[in-house]
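Contributing new records

If you add data, match the layout below exactly. Sequence lines come first and carry their own label; structure lines follow with theirs. Keep one chain per record. Anything else will be rejected by the validation script.
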Amino acid sequence: MPDFRKLEASIPVAPLSLIALDSAADLGKAVNRHLVDFRHNLHQAPANDPAFKGYCEDSYLTDVCIERFGSGEGKAMFKETCRGKDAFILLDVVNYNCPYKMNGFINYKSPDDHYQDLKRVIAAINGKAKRLNVIMPFLYVGRQHRRTQRESLDAAVMFHELSEMGVSNFITFDAHDPRISNSAPLTGFDNFMATYQFMKELLCNIDDLIVDKEHLIVISPDEGALDRAVYFANVLGADTGMFYKRRDYSHVVNGTNPIVAHEFLGSDIKGKDVIIVDDMISSGASMIDTSRQLKAMGAKRVFIACTFGLFTDGMDKFDEAYDRREFDYIISTNLTYQNPEFVKRPYYLVADMSKFIATIIDFFNHDSSTVNILTPTSKIREIVKKYNEGDHTLTELRG
């Protein structure tokens, strides 16, 4: 857990303002509740100190609305001031459940619309905030992160544009390629992972795991996720393996070269529990194919852990795969919109990230090192050891 004592040796940059756009309204409310709890119950703010003015509030949410004209054009309007505040703007660019009217028709916001709303909010602040921080859990256009032919380099353009608009700190999670920060090297770019939250959901919901290299293996579904899987495996003291995707580079389907087959590299998994770790599930076809192969190779159980469960083609294929026992659980975070119908599935677990985001905001507001936010490997291993010894209450995780 983070060391909140570090905050007592520093003063806040400015009074805190949390601006949750409509795409992240529910997550913003949860983050706000944790911030209020931190500052009323955990922190000792000096009384009558001007540096701590507005430190303990009943809410840090700032009222802002994005209005749309009949033509579909929009504007951002604040109903209270952000002057002199340390503003944190929270949004979810892949929330597909934000409707608006255009020429009498109901439309739903795309990632481009959400990004444009972010720029509207920054423009409405009009340089009056003390500091601008953007929390964008799913990196907008992060999948278009490199140029291999005559094509756009959207992720780098986005980050450079926000830097030019005055954003001081950019906070994201499990970025597809964090090297986009090179496009604006003097702007803060922090990329956090959900490793601890994945482990928390696993250990709190599965009572009979044995977390060691003889009984558990962490799998990367492709080459790009290997670093993530290696870290997860090292923390848990488990073995690791990977698949690589053989693609047909002779043509393009839906923007990518189609996958011909998934080939496995690793040790024998027969009788072992398997955790597949990846940053996102889009349509889910390759993830289901990976889990199917693992079960065919003799895996005892297959747990799919992904930071962003997008499920762009719905859940039907996952329902069918679950009925065929091709996987056992899916663990995803609430960093992006969670369809209420999806989370009702018996195999679907949600890792709550709101407390972690609130902690990040709290430490950033004090300009404290992010090292103090991260759960150390030694702490995680201590919890795993207790679990393996039969302590399934794990109060450290359930708090």
